[in-house]
Amino acid sequence: MIVQIVAALTIFTIFSPSSSAPVVVKESEVAFTIPTQVEAQPILPVQFSPETKVDLVEIDNPIVPVSIADLLQQTAASIATNSADLKIRGLEITQGIQVFNEPESPRCNSKVSHPDHIFCNNSMPLVAGRHTLLRLYLDCNDNCPTGDILVQLRVLKDGAEREVLTRQVSAATLAQVNGRPLQELRLNLGNSVNFEFLPPPDWMSGQIAFEIEAGSEQETQALLNTSQNFAVRKPLRVAYVPIQYQGVSPTEVPDIDHWLLRLYPVSEVEYFRLPVPDVIWDKELNKAEVLQELLTIYWLYTEQQPVEAWPDQLFGWLPQEYYNGGASDPDWCPNCAGPHSSRVAFGGLRPEQDIGGPRILVHEIAHNLGAKHAWSPTQQEDDQCFRAEGADIRVDPTWPYAETPYIQEIGIDLYSSPPIIYAPNVYDMMSYCTHPWVSPHTYRTIFESNLLEPSLDSPAAFQPENGAERGPALLISGIVYPDGTVSRPEIVQLDQAGQRQIPLTTSTRGDHCLDVYGFNNDRLGQYCFNAGFLDAETGLPTESSPYFFTLTNVDLADVARIELKKDQTSLITITPSANKPTVSLTFPNNGEVIRGRQTISWTAADADGEALIYSLMYSPDGGQSWLPLATHLTEPSYTLETSSLTTTAQALIRVIASDGFHTSAAQLAAPFIVEPGP
Predict the structure, then answer these.
(1) pTM tops 0.90
(2) CB 48 within 8 A of CB 192
C-alpha cells in the first residue's frame, strides 16, 4: 500500500477568524496568544471558495538528488516591494511544520549547519513530492484599498515559467487582517492567501522560484520574489509483523501508518505486513531480546529477497493487553540494550484515545532515524504526559527549547481533508505526552537521517564500504547479561551467494571485543562493541544486551576459536566441534496437502552432544525465494496456521540446525500444497 494521499481541498481565501477568548501559552521563545483549545487539540480550518488556476503544459524533468550539505544553501531570501496601500508581510512555505515569525527570532543563525538555523524563517527543509502549501500574509498599512485585490503567483524552474495561480481578496476581508499579530494569523488558514500543491507536480524539485504580484486590476502594488530548494528524500518502506504473546495476537488496525506520512519529511510511505506468520513469543518479554529476534527475521528476509523488496524498518506489534509502550534499536545510543541496528522496533497496539498505536510507531521509528527524546514533564506536572517520576528518558542534549515539550511553531497536516492546524503548545512527537505533532528540531533531525538518502536503494546499515570485495563472512550473535555472564555466541557462515552485500564491520572501540583466531593463533578478525544495559525509552536497567554483527573475509573452516572479552578479561571461548549436526524433515511430505493448524516436525542429532537451535524457512514458489517462519527454536517442531502462509502448490520447507558453530539444513525434494482452510 503506497501512501500518497491527495487531499480534496478547496482553495483558501481570506476569512474572518474565530472570536474565541484567548489564552496565553508559555513557550521557550515567546508567549503566543492563541485561541482556547481543549487538551491542546488541533484546529480545523474552514473551507473556502474555489480557486482560479491557469494550467501550463508540464515539461518532463527528472528528479536529481541533492546532498544534505547543499540542500538549504540554495534557498534565496525573500525580496518584497510594497506600496503605501498594500504590504506583503511575508510568504510561509510549509509541508507540515515551518518557522515563521515577525520579527524573525533573534536566535536565528543564517549558517545552515548551525543548530540555531532552525530559528530562521522558512528554515525547514522542503521535500520534492511532499504536499506543500504557500501562505501569503497581506497588510494594508494605514490606507487600505477600497477595491478587491488580485494576487498572482508565478512558479519558475530553471528560469522557465511552469505554473501560474491567481487569488482574489476582497477589501473587507483584507481590512480584517490588517495589523493583527502574525502568530494569530497563522492559526487560521482563512487569514492568509493560500496556494496549495497537493501533491506538487513532478517538476517541483531542486531550485524553484516563486514570484508574487498583488494589487488592483489597474496596477501592481506589492511584489515578492523568493526561491526554495525542494530536496529528494527516499520513500520510506516500513514492514510490520504481529507478535503473539500469551496466546493473544494484536488486532489488525487499518491505516495505522497514516501518521508516518503526516509527520515525516518524506513524499511516500509504504507500510506492509512482512509475508511471514505471527512471531510466537512464549517466554517472558524482554525488550532487548525481542529486538534481537526482530533483527534476525529482518536479516533472514532481506538475505533471501531482491533489493527492491527490502524494507527500511521492521516493526513488531504486541497485543495491547500485555504491552503499552514501545522500544527501538537506535545506533546512536551505545549504552542502550540492543543490537544497535537502527532497523527494528516494536510496540503495543494501544487505542488512539490512549497513547495511540500509530503514534508509538512514529515515535519508535523516529528513534531509528536519529531523533531523540524531547524534554517531557512528569504525569504529576502535566496530566497529558506520562513520564514516570524519577525516570531518566535521556532528553536530547541538543533539544533547543529549554524545559518545554512543545512544537513551538504552527504545524499543519496537509494530508487530512480538511487540513488540520496544530498550535505552538501541542506536544512534540518525541515527548512523553499525548496527541503530538512535530517540532522544527525533530523534523530537521529526521530529514537529515542517512537512512533517507535518495541514493540508497537498500538499507544503509548493511552496505559495504566503497571498494569492498564480496567474500566469506560470519554472522555472529549472542547476549551479554548485566551480571557479566554471556550466552554462547551463535555463528553462521554466509556464503555471499545471495543479494546481500556484507558490511566491513571492523570496530575496535567498545567495552566488549570478540576475537576470531586461526590455527596459528593469528587473529583473523575483531569486532568491539558496547554492551548497554539501559532501556532506550525509560533509562532504567534492562535484563540483557544482545549483539548482532558480521565479520567479513573470514571462512569458518579457518577458525580455531572465538573468544569474547570484556576489558581484556575472557568471558567465553568456543571452539568448533568435530561434527556438523544432522537434520531431516518428517512433516510435511512431498506432494502433501496441508490446511488449517499444522505442526511441522523434523529429527536432528549432534554427534558431539551440542545443544541445537533451529530456524525454519518457507518458500511459496518452489525455492525461488525464501521467507523466515521461525527462529531460535529449541524443539524439533513448530505449529502454525496455514492461513498465515501464502496459498500455493509450490511450497517448500527448509529447516536449519545449528550447534552454535556448524549449521546443516534439510528441505523437501518436491513441493507440497498449502491451502488456507480449517
Answers:
(1) no
(2) no
